[in-house]
Amino acid sequence: MSASFEKYQKRKLISSYFSVVLSIALVLFLLGLLGLLVLNAKKVSDHFKEQVVVTIYLKDTAKEVETKQLEKSLALADYVKSTEYVSKEEAAASMKEENGEDFMDFLGYNPLQNSIDVHLKADYVTSEHLEEISKEALNKNFVDEVRYDNDLVTLMNNNVKKISFWVLILSGIFTLIAVLLINSSIRLAVYAKRFTIKTMQMVGATKRFIRRPFIWKSVQLGILGAIIALIGMAVVLYYLNQTFPELDLMRNPILIGALFIAVFILGIIITWISTFFATQRFLNLKTDQLY
């Protein structure tokens, strides 16, 4: 009968430890993913901003030397990431490929213009900068027109500000929830040992002596949960980096490494603090309050 009870208690304890490790791992994993999102939020927004194209259309009378000079000046400008010259023939071929038919068969000539596609650096993708760049290009007598989607730029910048604000708010809320969930799991694990704590106290053990094994065991569980969370984060990061290589999520390995270390340390700190206060609570209870 005694052996059967001991096996039951052991299974119950293992189940309690498993639930603590699982809850710590899940919470730290989600917290780590949120951290990755915060670290890469600007990078993702910059990527989409830099997809905005400013197209400079050239007059048919534009000389090749003028076009080359304009390309060179744009390439050297601080606000330009890249430029691409598109001849009217290339533009016609692209339209033919997109539409599946040759519009020049109907018109008998190519009405398109030679152009230069300009991709700006993300910090310069604002309505004000685009207007200044457009005016500067139009000052050249061989430039016919400058086109860009101003409504899209305004919408994008507004959405980036809103998303950044809510990401910060959610980060704070989620961090608080993470601490509360891990604390709850640790308290349940300590609760199962409340009679052992009181028995040790009754035979003369000091509070520090009683707390030490509980804290050490919880820290071990926190380390195990953090390792599982970090493995999950590494898998997700690898998958995203392979699926979206243009985002270059591993461009700053120092920040990524710092995030992983922070998650690992957070798992240890939260479990240590939660166990300390949970054991302290039961140490301060009277025997009849344990039931």
Number of helices: 9
How far apart the termini lie comes to 24 Å
Q: Sketch the topology as an H/E string, one letter per element.
A: HEHEHHEHEHHHH
Q: What oligomeric assembly is this protein in?
A: single chain
Strand content: 5-15%
Structure description:
The protein is α+β, with helices and mostly antiparallel strands and 291 residues long. 71% of the residues lie in helices and 8% in strands. It has 9 helices and 4 strands.
Keywords for this structure?
4-stranded antiparallel beta sheet, 9 helices, 8% strand, 71% helix, 291 residues, alpha+beta, rod-shaped
Describe the secondary-structure layout:
Layout: H1 2-49, E1 53-58, H2 64-76, E2 80-86, H3 88-99, H4 104-107, E3 115-120, H5 127-138, E4 143-147, H6 150-191, H7 194-202, H8 207-243, H9 253-283
Antiparallel strand pairs: 1-3, 1-4, 2-3
In short:
By secondary structure, the protein is α+β, with helices and mostly antiparallel strands. Helices cover 71% and strands 8% of the residues. It has helices at 2-49, 64-76, 88-99, 104-107, 127-138, 150-191, 194-202, 207-243, 253-283, and strands at 53-58, 80-86, 115-120, 143-147.
